[in-house]
Amino acid sequence: MKARVPATVAFVAAALASAASGFSIFQHSAAQTAERPAPIETVTVAPGTFTYRLPGEYLRNGRPVDAPTRQVTFRIGFAIMKYQVSADAYAACVADGACETADGRTSGDVPVTGVSHRDAEAYAAWLSRRTGEVWRLPTDEEWSFAAAERLHDDALGLADDGNPATRWLARYRSEAAGKADRDPQPKPLGHFGANSRGVFDIAGNVWDWTSTCYLHATLALDATRPAVVQSVENCGVRVVDGRHRGYMSTFIRDGKSGGCAAGLAPDNLGIRLVRDESALVALLRWQ
């Protein structure tokens, strides 16, 4: 499964177009420089390998089963935001006319919430323009690796007993237990502390959008062979990560567009971005 980085591709295309016209995206007037956001704190996640459970829905013999795992190796590190994007930081994008108003908290040193996938990508594009850096949503693999010991394995570990209700009840109990102590009120940045990599509030009470699309897949009938024999990718639904993995519609706000996903984004869903340093180096070579 390949990681998707649409924001990076768009940014590269814009940069090359600007370069061709004789204007560098890295050239700013003194006034523009003064308007840049304050330096963004990041954590550099070192290269490494981990066991990754694939996202999506997996069927064997027509019945849902736990997703298979595979070893994922990051040969180079990556920089991820130390904290989630705050309501105040997002408000600056709204004030600049580049982002729509969030449906959740709109001010304060708390994570912005109530943002759609489109909102998250718009913020990443705006931040890239403002800083001259390349910011994008993390893939599910990147977020999972950065989460370290706070990553929740959503496998149920059930043997197939032929009764579909068994798995449904187990999933219900698991999700109910996770909601038992849920406090939906966004907390100040840093409230949930840092994990072993130094990333704060990861798997707190605000989930993060990722760029990874939902996958519906069929596995080989032989349970000893986890190979995917058929799969359908749905990018109208994206993986969201927090205390557990979830799947969320991209939430088209305008119902007149014909989208069945019209509505408000959840009040516990926010933004944490990755700085794509490899793409930035590539762009600088073109200048």
Describe this structure in words.
With 287 residues, the chain is of the alpha+beta class. The protein has a single domain, classed as paralog of FGE (formylglycine-generating enzyme) (Alpha-Beta Complex). It is built from seven helices and twelve strands. The strands form three sheets. Strands 3, 4, 8, 9, 10 and 11 form a six-stranded mixed β-sheet that branches. Strands 1-6-12-7 form a four-stranded antiparallel β-sheet. It has a two-stranded antiparallel ribbon with strand order 2-5. A hairpin with a 2-residue loop joins strand 3 and strand 4.
Tell the overall outline: globular
Spell the H/E element sequence. HHEEEEEEHHEHHEEEEEH
The figure for the number of domains is 1
Report the end-to-end length measured between terminal Cα atoms: 32 Å
Task: Detail the poorly predicted runs.
Answer: 1-34, 255-261, 280-287
Estimate percent helicity.
25-40%
Number of strands: 12
User: How would a textbook summarize the main sheet?
Assistant: 6 strands, mixed
Query: If helices are DSSP runs of H or I spanning 4 or more residues, what is the number of helices?
Result: 7
CATH architecture field:
Alpha-Beta Complex
| CATH domain class name | Alpha Beta
